[in-house]
Amino acid sequence: MTATPVSLSMPTVPRRRRTPEHVAAAAPVAGAKKVLLAAPRGYCAGVDRAVIAVEKALEHYGAPIYVRKQIVHNRHVVETLEERGAIFVDETDEVPEGALVVFSAHGVSPAVVRSAEDRGLRTIDATCPLVTKVHREAVRFAKDDYEILLIGHEGHEEVEGTYGEAPENTQIVNSPQEADTIRVKDPDKLIWLSQTTLSVDETMETVRRLRERFPNLQDPPSDDICYATSNRQAAIKKIAPQADLVIVVGSANSSNSVRLMEVALEYGAKASHRVDFANEVDESWFEGVSTIGLTSGASVPEVLVQDVLRLAAEYGYGTVEEVVTADEDILFSLPKELRATLKEAGDSSRGLGGRGQRPQS
To answer: Is 337 a catalytic residue?
Structure first.
């Protein structure tokens, strides 16, 4: 069967912008202009690891390399890898028998693994280790006959993968409102797990409402919302009250990027917008704005943030203050299937994925 690439909308066509003078005349700004730049921002260790996995697979096995779903939810990353020979597909039955397929950072269900095995596909599992942790929790608690309330967005690839580990024991809770109506089999044998990229505040509100109805609801052994999601939300919470405008760099299908935009508004930003690329920034957003907050989702390369900074500087926001709320130094080993190939080839150039490990270009 011929592979059908995952469809991506075309980047916004560059348009003629109004000049900084025109923007300033429309709504003058009193005082100095500046950008508050969130740190940490951008790539997390799981994303870095997954992207390196595809890059290394292309280097050592040659194109084409098939990838089930987008390796990470970012248009720039996906399009760049496509140019190098990666083919993104929706399902494993679109991959030629015997070919190599990479599972995305969001994880897959056991049914997807079996489908790949049935087709004789070679696989590289680039699932983020923090997502794998949640999968293992689901398996463990289902084996002990717990009912699992999985807090997350139905239809999201990560949620589909986790749900698929124990579908007969799992219910998905999409929102705090759903927590008020969900029915369970045994309120005394109940545990909640969550998608790793959710709003921390909204997840805790969902848990609070669930616990009001089911006092014996158990917590997961450790936080399911990943460190990168929590850290990026903490940074934008600190910036938002000071910002007339927050710009989040990230794709529309990136859950953690969308949450950053929402958190900015919840914590006091006067306006918040999400863009994939600097050319999507509307210069009218700068009218009357003295302070811009800038951050990016966990699947966004730093080069895209720098493009926005350069654009902002053209409109008078040349002063950049980095707001640091955490220091990230987490590293993950590359997928075991790939490590064996790299070792055999004597390639020791990149064995880990994590913050600060990739060139910022």
So the answer is: no
